[in-house]
Amino acid sequence: MRSSILAFVAGVWLLQQQAVLPDPAWGWGLPLLATAYWLPRHRLPGVVRHGLLLGMLFGAGFLFAAAAAGQRMQDVLPLAWEGVDIVLSGVVASLPVKTEHGQRFEFDVEQVITPGAQVPRHIQLNTYTTAFNGKPLPDAPRVHAGERWRFTVRLRRPHANANPHVFDLEAWFLERNLGALGSVRDSPDNQRLRVFVARPGYAVEAVREAIALRLDCVLAGEPYAGVLKALVIGDQSAIPPAQWALYQRTGITHLISISGLHVTMLSGLAFALVYWLWRRSVRLTLRLPARRAAVLAGALTALLYVLLAGFAVPAQRTLYMLLVVAVALWSGRVIAPTRVLLWALLIVVLLDPWAVLSAGFWLSFGAVAAMLFATTARVGKLHWLRAWLATQWAVTLALAPVLLLLFGQLSLVSPLANAFAIPLVSFGVTPLALAGSVPGMDWLLYAAHWLMAGCVWVLDWLAHLPLALWQQPEPGGAAVVLALLGALWLLLPRGFPARWVGALLILPALLTPPPQPQPGALWVTVLDVGQGLAVLVRTAHHALLFDTGPRYTAESDSGSRVIVPYLRGEGVARLDGLIVSHDDNDHSGGALSVLREVPAGWLASSLPATHPVLAAGVRSLRCVAGQHWQWDGVNFAVLHPTQASYDDVRLKDNNRGCVLKMDGAGGSVLLSADIEARDEAELLASVPDKLPATLLVAPHHGSRTSSTPDFIAAVHPDVTVFTVGYRNRFGHPRGDIVARYARLGSQLLRSDSHGAVEAHFVPDHAPSVAAWRQTRQRYWQAGVR
């Protein structure tokens, strides 16, 4: 039975790696396998029959996931209705989350009022109480969970940036069944139609919102209010990025969500309390045995808490495990712990085939599997302290390869941090916060906050220990598999021969260096940061970052979301140089986040002297035409701006943008920032011989202010990359500009439709240019291009 469940789950996982969904005709393979299994089963060897069964279940998982995916992909906003005002009505289906400019919430569409419009059944909307310039919008609707509204909305398909080593937000949209994203428009049609729609799911969200509002009121201004909200209702949106960084550095992020430990603790508490009380009533015991009553209480408590948590995967896993145990206890059966885990695994995948795409799925089930592997089938009974230490060691060792694969880092103080924080958060902070969410129990919330503050003080001390965090490039798949086998080998019982082999199997994941350019080679990655620019340039022994993309919100930017994860995944621990071409947000917005995480040797820019990036403690200089240097056989030259540009107060920031040319034996690259026609003419007059390039990042994202015919003819790029945001408000790149490059025969790539672009220029080889959405294509991406 165990291998059968694993085969089914493996089939589901394989489907989620496909570039396109399979033809439904493949479904006929299952009856053929079933026939091969059942008809001659009395003649076939047991191993063959078992193999046929596993193959049939593997195929069943694959086709089950394919059918679910096909149905979900049909419920996506049609291209024709992107960016069009649509009037519709429906129900606020989730806890509204506060954003910098308003609210964000999920919405169940009940009726599309605009004639002919086609809208998915489940969408995500934003309302805006302030404009992006800070101006209040007093007429903006303020919504609450469970309300029925009529809105005028403008929608787009679920699109996100696509880069290696970066979180796949489009997959997350798919898992959440969000067929469109959009905003509520200012319109007289916007109207609340009903205060509350009485359905169970909406009632749960309304309760979550009521608790959230209470916590916001009682703990207003307290630094760890967001943590308590996460522990009570699973809403992590109010936790500041700096706190998240601390929890990641100490390896306790699993505690700052409603994890399995919290669910188990509350369920066990309810079980013990009801069992103790029930046994004291003869009448109740005669009607229902105390054990069964306690089982019901424990299961119901777990269900309610998981619903309160927003039904996250780690909490689901624990709920289903507890329900399997509850059924076994109710029926008086004994069930092996591994079967409990596998039944929970099967239920999660059946209800949500996309759960296998989330890191939480693998970390959650992997942690429990590691604990079971380390503590079951052992001779003798371990002292509780030794058992605790054994489980901590098992979880740390078994999850280390997965953490390195997913995040490129591993907290070395995690065992100490968890040994301290798990009992404090699970048995102190969480129960107090839950009890304090009841009206009239404010003092319990303050007590929970005080305990959390003490916990953070210790975590901060641990985080600042030397070597608290191990960071490395993302290991390859084969190295991760070897490391997992090595971890299991090391966790075998004492006395098992050659356990040291396990340590050897782990070494490749830790020591295998990432690919690097050879001497004379030039590697360039144009990252997908939306409407902005960020380019990583590498030679054999040097790395340069040109521009840092936009700042998205007050607490989020492309530096932290895209650039730093990419640098870690590629093994770039230090930048030799950073160039910020000019002051515009879409080029400089992520610079501070990058410099906080990755040291840089120098900073060159055209930024004004008062810009905060210049106060980041990095040696800085102006970029001026004529600057040049050589790294590992590759020549670098700054072509623009001239010194006179800084003295001309009439010029815009775009006209002072740094332009960088790189020439290697295998090809050349021109990074042109946001220069405009006057600057292109200046380059044509001053350095026409330096303009030809194999790859050009189009000036100013393909706007009509740039890319004059003479400039394009002088550069004559083989490849042109337009760095643009999906459906950006500027209309970049302009169609006539794209046509100019196309007439020249240039290969055209757009970051919004191709994702990150990686170009390798190697001596004596043809240039290699690859787009991330093509090299790592998944079936759900077809819905956003």
UniProtKB/TrEMBL annotation:
Membrane topology: Multi-pass membrane protein
Pfam families linked: Competence (PF03772), DUF4131 (PF13567), Lactamase_B (PF00753)
UniProt xrefs under Gene3D superfamilies: Ribonuclease Z/Hydroxyacylglutathione hydrolase-like
Keywords tagged on the record: Cell membrane, Membrane, Transmembrane, Transmembrane helix
GO biological process entries: establishment of competence for transformation
Subcellular location: Cell membrane
Domain Metallo-beta-lactamase stretches: 531-726
SUPFAM superfamilies cross-referenced by the UniProt entry: Metallo-hydrolase/oxidoreductase
Protein name: DNA internalization-related competence protein ComEC/Rec2
Native source species: Sulfuriferula plumbiphila
Entry annotated with the keyword Cell inner membrane: no
InterPro entries, alphabetized: ComA-like_MBL (IPR035681), ComEC_N (IPR004477), Competence_ComEC/Rec2 (IPR004797), Competence_DNA_uptake (IPR052159), DUF4131 (IPR025405), Metallo-B-lactamas (IPR001279), RibonucZ/Hydroxyglut_hydro (IPR036866)
Annotated TM spans: 51-69, 255-278, 290-312, 319-336, 342-375, 387-410, 416-436, 443-463, 475-492
The UniProt record lists the keyword Cell membrane: yes
GO CC, one annotated term: plasma membrane
